[in-house]
Amino acid sequence: MSDEIASSYQANLQRGELLRRQNRLPEAESYLQRAIGEQPDNAEAYYQLAFTYCNWTGHSKKALEVIDRAISLDPSRADFFALRSWVLGNLNKHKEALQVAEHGLGMNPHDLLALNSRTRAYGLIANWSKSEESALQTLSFYPRNELAANFLAQALRQQGRMEESHAVTARLLAQVPDNPMAQCNAGWSALQMGDHRSANQFFMEALRLDPGYDYARQGLLHSFNSHVWI
In whole angstroms, how far apart are CA 185 and each of 102, 192, 211? Predict the structure, then answer.
């Protein structure tokens, strides 16, 4: 491989990853496809492309196909299995997502995405005690991880431990008030306590921060339906 081709591959890969992080997904896809065209046997570009599809509504099946290609090229990467687990969760294959997350953690017990994917999978199958346990383990490794803290608040709320859940969410909102999931968790907690006005404010703020956040939209609709008698 010439130095020119290698340099072009790296440039396209880095540009694609940067655009993905900026949520400019169609542009990211274009650069990553170019990188794959230049080095079709390099797993990293497939991984970045799968990540792009994972964050792109309606592209989860593509994400699964591409991450499977990355794994076939390099089955030694725990982060590849972690991403595969998250994609499976997006596809409502929750038990398989849990198994794949555990496989990734067997390769690297500290992989953050695998830890959060496991926690999420436990929540999606409504095993809230295990979701709590998994979130606490993640936070023991990464004390300031926002996603793990949100999962913990959710697991506590679902077990009826409202004061503990509220305390976790309050700390999170104090640290990162622009976190839409934390705003949404606060909304569901307020709704569970019958405070529709506060719930609506939290859900609206979550939607302001992330207009496509379906969980907040569901909360707002549920609050309206439970508050209005016909």
Answer: 26, 11, 16
